[in-house]
Amino acid sequence: MRFGIALGFIVASAIPISAAEAESKTPYVWRVVVQTPVHPSLSAPVRTRLCQDLKAALLPVLGEELGRVDVVDLRAVATKDWEPLWTAFAVAGWTALDKPEAQKLTGVKTHFLKIDIRDGRTFRIETRQLDGSTGILSAVVRSAETQNADTLARLAGLLIGKDFGPVGMVEPIKDDEKQVSVKFRGGQLPGFEGKVQTGDVLAFAMVTDARAKGVARPKTDQPQQLVGKPLTATYLRVVSKISNGECRCEILTRLNDPFLKVAVVGYRAMKVATQEAKVQVRLLDEQGKPPPSTTSLEIWATDNGFTGKPTNRDTLELQKGIYTSGKPLKNVACVVVRVGSTLSDPHVVPLIPSDEPFTLRVNINPVNIEKAEFEQACERLRARVADARTSQLELVKGLSQLIVAGKLDEALARAAKGVETAGSADLLLSEELAKLKKGKSVKDAYPSTLLAIGEEQLKILRAGKPELEKRMEDLRLAIAKSNDPVKFEKEFRANELVRQIQYHVARGEVPEADAIYDQLIELTKQDEMKTKKAKLLVDWTPANDDHKKARAFLLDEWRKATVLAEFQPLFPKLQPTLDTFVKNADKLGLRNFLSAVGICYARLQDQLAPLDENADADRALIKDLKAFADEVRKIDQAAEAESKKLEEKK
Hints:
By secondary structure, the protein is α+β, with helices and mostly antiparallel strands. The chain is built from 15 helices and 20 strands. Strands 6-7-10-9-8-11 form a 6-stranded antiparallel barrel. The chain has a 5-stranded mixed beta sheet with strand order 2-1-3-4-5, with helices on one face. Strands 15-16-13-20 form a 4-stranded mixed beta sheet, with no helix packed on it.
């Protein structure tokens, strides 16, 4: 995980500063904007008293030294002096707070209070918070009714006070990808004590500069335009006590990496009002409809993240279209929806006091489920073939070590077991491959690529069986031989080193073969081996600077890459490297090229394996991984064709 630069606010100015110390000593500006209808019961004196009483009711919530409370009566302020957000709210009501314009940061925490009169005598109060340091909007519109105008301020104060949430900067913790540090605004001011407790839940937001428009560096000749973008897939949970205005929080997220790689100024968080309660969830598909009764669906929830295994007590029960947990959860629910046998969709649900269940949208399209299951079956096959091939290579390596060490009996037993295992794996994997090649989605780009890779690796797996059988025969002969056992053992060890050299040369891995030649020369004391080594190194010598650079790129940069983000910037060099090897008729280079591409496939699959097709953030990475593998495969096929041409030349 990587973070942008930390962000702070000077009171009411939205000027970013980098010092967390200043953030922790910056007081809050809490503004309540009151909208009322024209009615005799809400005359100017009544509204004035309402604003005064409301301010008096909220001051204890904030504390005199933690900030100030401003109450604005829209009817008492000339419309020309209204802020843009006030105007938008007066025109569009609550929907105005959902607009992108509302996410422009001001550094002011604003509560909108709307009072209506019903039936000529009932006052209806509605209120909602928009935080100007994060762009986070309170999850629900709180409401209440009364027929007594004298209780309006007290009732409104109770509703508004529930949603006041301290805000803070989110910062990384070195060598810890599961937790972050949050440094709270006003955290070192008197009155902050008790505002944030262990177990509290914080909403999470990204802060960007609108000037950047998706690029890393905005134009500095324009005034900064900070925008808060709440990231509802991620929440933070406080796991330590506040110390010097700071605490540790664990990350609760459905995303593979919640810290997006975009032009980010920083990340911020705001405490949300939560409770201990049973979680209630309504499921809807992408069209806003409940899932069909025929859908194979499971749903469970815990309050300890997504890492633990669910138990029967964690399963949610369906009652009248609503899934409800059997036990109360504390402050947050980590909900997992499993559709079919493979698609799992995690969600983080803050337990906010509300009469309405939490709505989750899940991908339950039967076609998508079938396609995903087929792709995963292809991925599993490719992975199993790769594992079998890796096991075979490890066996060969282990046999070589045992033979060189003179442990022939142990080597024979291990070889026999390896031949048996390879045969069983070949049979099972071949049957599975044949079955998958009859699937409906077999012609789709990604599954076809996976199956092609699996089939090629299966051929290599089969080709390794005769070599193992030959080694078993040699081992039996060596064990049975009694004449001059010391000399024979030395010859046998030498033959094993020769086999290792041949293996690495076949893969173009000359540095590895060179090192083994040194062992062979030391063992045999033969000048012939020195001559062969020298010839190999001559064949390996680059023809020119471009050839040398191509070799270095493949052996160093490309083989060190482990994830897509590291392979992508190297990809433009891959085709020129191949062209250089072809131009110089470099057989060894082409062999090394093919083995290096094989390593790339395996590492991309390792990155793909833990991703979830049904998670929003994972989808983009899955798509990129598949597309990149297809592009690499095109070059791989060209390299294989060129290598075959050179190998066939005498």
